[in-house]
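Budget justification aside, the reviewers requested a transparent look at the raw inputs and outputs of the sequence design task funded under Objective 1. We therefore reproduce one unedited record. The lines immediately below are the structure tokens for a 796-residue chain.
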């Protein structure tokens, strides 16, 4: 017989869905989702609040049989009953609407899919006519992310309170009679929609069906709440320096726009470290301020007890970050840490133990399609034991402006670049009488280039640059006994004109589905050579790595304070392979200084301001550079950058990285040879700025044991001294509702007289979906560094 259909405008249907708002949430307090969680945040929480009904919409009902029971004043639908209303779909074996009692009852394989995607299953479901109040027998609610709640009975009253009896909540899947990995069970679970809370009475936390914790009463915000005051998950650990420590944060949801987290940490060896985090979001941005302080007894610290740094009193720091938008193109912000001493944050694991410099900045940036403006103020400070006041400097400010003209000029591209810098440094070298240093400069540069291609395929790129500099330098109270007339308080001008051309002739061969390109490249660059740089400060051009990436740069210096002068020729040969799967590019070349002064020469200056003699450019014929970039398949990639001595082809610098990924295995190995930071691990390490020729290797590997278990490890090794610098191994488990990781790591670096010593770390972290996480570790050292890897970051 044909299926019966009925359109109703009165029965605003089975919003049975009142029960869909019930759910479970993590901790006693609720913070916005934080970066690094193993589980993505679901829209609207676990179940979400039901959408507001539009009572003007009709209800559609259909079934195999539709019966009007006039004597009983009922309407009965039987057999494959389906009801559609406001994006909600109800199916059941039978639905009875009792017009006398104003109730609607569904029975037999009842399933309701609401507008949020949640699925509610029950054997019997009854609601009153206005659908505010009702109850469900043998209730099962399955959310869109497979979180579920089951109960023997559910009841809704007063329009906003839902009560479940003998209820269980879990975010884990389970098959057959196997219990879920974890669940929360309670005699009564009450969801108050108006208060946005879920409370449990006689609650039990179970793992694989075994009760591991019991609470007579437990309450947390419902999934619709993003922020609510309360305690967060605690942190417990053990450290040789700190002793046993315990941290129980309390979160204050003061406003929808700002909050505060109070995080006192008790340490058996040091006392109480007081910590607090303030966050505020405004209409155009956000900022944060973190405070940390302790009344320290220095006699409890490791290191030299007679050191001048050992004194009683308060130690602490203020850390603040901010970012704001002024318009679609303009933004500003800051990153700053003010601290009582340079080892406080590393000793209490607020920073990485390998941090060597403190950099604070305030910035203003404007960016459009062809225009860039940046103004930044910096404070630089050294954190190493041998750093003195000379390592402290202020930049107030440095300004950069770049502009690319819209219309071609002489058929080519015209660019404008400007830079202004103001820098000061105090107590530079009191032994020599040099008390302070101030430097101000303004630099303007205009450049032009155009590309031509002739009939045989040779490309010509002529270019030109004009640059003018104004420097004002003041070394106060300087008295040079060798030259009493030397004046280091002066203003000077300098200019640089550059012209040249780059020529390349690519030869292309196509073989089947592959292409081969062999391209010889030559470049001639001419600068005026009458620029004197002796005795001038060098603040931003001290770092130089000569390799294939800057072989054809018109100046290979890293900053403005040094100029390349004279005439130089750069030549190279590039080969490129492109196939349906693989890719390869190789570039080899050399640079030749033809005339004028070589700015990179070790004999260029006689006043101690010579550039690094190991740059590879110190002679007229430079070292050879080779860059190799290989990706023969999707599973293997190699990047190699090498510099060879121009006399005997011995390797002077090498960086080699290989990445291999095949099935469940992923590995990466990086080998470095050249000037490396002088990490010495057998207590003879001197934390200075000295570098040495050395070899290091860093290896990382990850093996997916199963679809849920992963094993990973890393090691950094000093090949010269045959010593490990650091290593770690991690075993991790991750499924749809639970994450667990156990990490063991070691560091072997010592900073004598300070708080940095070789250490071993054991860290355990786990996270329950929707419930938050907990961290445990012993001998806490955040050797990886960075915000996300901090031992004391709340994982909720």
């Amino acid at each position: 017989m044909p299926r019966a259909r009925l359109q109703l405008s009165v029965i605003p249907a089975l919003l049975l869905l009142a029960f869909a708002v019930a759910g479970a949430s993590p901790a006693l307090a609720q913070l916005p989702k934080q970066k690094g969680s193993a589980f993505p945040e679901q829209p609207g929480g676990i179940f979400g609040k039901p959408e507001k009904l539009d009572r003007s919409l009709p209800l559609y009902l259909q079934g195999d049989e539709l019966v009007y029971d006039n004597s009983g004043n009922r309407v009965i639908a039987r057999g494959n009953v389906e009801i559609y209303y406001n994006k909600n779909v109800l199916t059941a074996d039978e639905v009875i609407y009792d017009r006398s009692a104003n109730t609607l009852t569904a029975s037999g394989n009842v399933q309701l899919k609401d507008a949020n995607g949640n699925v509610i299953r029950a054997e019997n479901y009854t609601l009153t006519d206005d659908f505010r109040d009702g109850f469900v027998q043998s209730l099962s609610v399955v959310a869109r992310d497979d979180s579920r709640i089951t109960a023997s009975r559910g009841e809704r009253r007063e329009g906003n309170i839902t009560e479940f009896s003998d209820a269980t909540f879990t975010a884990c899947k389970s098959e057959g009679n196997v219990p879920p990995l974890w669940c929360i069970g309670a005699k009564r679970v009450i969801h108050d929609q108006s208060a946005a809370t879920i409370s449990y009475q006689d609650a039990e936390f179970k793992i694989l069906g075994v009760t591991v914790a019991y609470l007579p009463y437990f309450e947390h915000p419902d999934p619709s709440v993003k922020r609510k005051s309360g305690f967060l998950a605690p942190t417990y650990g053990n450290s040789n320096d700190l002793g046993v420590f315990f941290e129980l944060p309390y979160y204050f949801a003061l406003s929808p726009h700002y909050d505060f987290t109070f995080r006192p940490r008790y340490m058996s060896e040091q006392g109480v470290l007081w910590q607090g985090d303030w966050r505020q979001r405004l209409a155009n941005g956000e900022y944060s301020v973190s405070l940390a302080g302790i009344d320290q007894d220095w006699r409890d610290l490791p290191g030299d007890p007679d050191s001048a740094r050992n004194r009683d009193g308060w130690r602490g720091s203020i850390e603040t970050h901010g970012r704001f938008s002024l318009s679609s193109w303009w933004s500003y912000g800051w990153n700053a840490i003010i601290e009582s001493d340079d080892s406080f944050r590393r000793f209490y694991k607020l920073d990485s133990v390998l941090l060597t410099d403190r950099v604070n900045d305030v910035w203003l940036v404007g960016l459009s399609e062809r225009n860039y403006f940046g103004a930044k103020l910096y404070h630089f400070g050294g954190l190493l034991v041998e750093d003195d006041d000379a390592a402290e400097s202020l930049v107030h400010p440095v300004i950069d402006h770049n502009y690319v003209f819209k219309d071609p000029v002489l058929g080519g591209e015209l660019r404008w670049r400007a830079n202004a810098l103001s820098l000061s440094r105090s107590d530079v070298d009191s032994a020599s009488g040099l008390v302070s240093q101030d430097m101000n400069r303004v630099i303007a540069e205009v450049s032009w280039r155009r590309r031509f291609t002739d009939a045989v395929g040779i490309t010509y790129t002529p270019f030109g640059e004009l640059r003018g500099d104004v420097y004002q330098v003041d070394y106060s109270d300087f008295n040079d006994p060798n030259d009493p007339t030397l004046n280091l308080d002066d203003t000077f001008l300098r200019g640089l004109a550059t012209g040249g051309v780059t020529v390349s002739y690519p030869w292309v061969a196509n073989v089947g589905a592959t292409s081969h390109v062999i391209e010889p490249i030559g470049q001639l660059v001419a600068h005026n050579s009458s620029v004197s740089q002796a005795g001038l400060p060098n603040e931003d051009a001290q770092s130089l790595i000569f390799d294939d990436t800057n072989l054809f740069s018109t100046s290979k210096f890293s900053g403005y304070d040094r100029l390349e002068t004279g005439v130089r020729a750069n030549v190279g040969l590039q080969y490129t392979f492109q196939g349906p799967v693989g890719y390869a590019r190789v570039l080899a070349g050399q640079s030749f200084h033809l005339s004028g002064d070589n700015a990179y020469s070790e004999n260029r200056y006689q006043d101690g301001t010579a550039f690094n003699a190991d740059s590879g450019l110190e002679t007229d014929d430079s070292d050879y550079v080779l860059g190799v970039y290989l990706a023969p398949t999707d599973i293997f990639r190699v990047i190699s950058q090498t510099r060879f001595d121009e006399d005997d082809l011995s390797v002077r610098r090498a960086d080699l990285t290989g990445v291999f990924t095949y099935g469940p295995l992923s590995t990466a190995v990086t080998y470095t040879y050249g000037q490396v930071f002088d990490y010495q691990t057998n207590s003879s390490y001197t934390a200075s700025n000295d570098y040495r020729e050395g070899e290091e290797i860093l290896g990382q590997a990850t093996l997916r044991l199963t679809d849920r278990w992963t094993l990973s490890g890393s090691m950094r090794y000093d090949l010269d001294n045959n010593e490990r610098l650091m290593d770690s191994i991690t075993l991790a488990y991750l499924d749809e509702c639970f994450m667990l990781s156990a990490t063991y790591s070691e560091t072997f670096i010592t900073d004598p007289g300070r708080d940095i010593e070789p250490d071993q770390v054991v860290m355990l972290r786990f996270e329950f979906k929707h419930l938050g996480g907990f961290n445990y570790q012993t001998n806490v050292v955040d050797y990886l560094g960075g915000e996300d890897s901090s031992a004391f970051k709340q994982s909720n």
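The helical segments are 344-347. The chain is about 0% helix and 55% strand. Computational costs for records of this kind are itemized in the attached budget.
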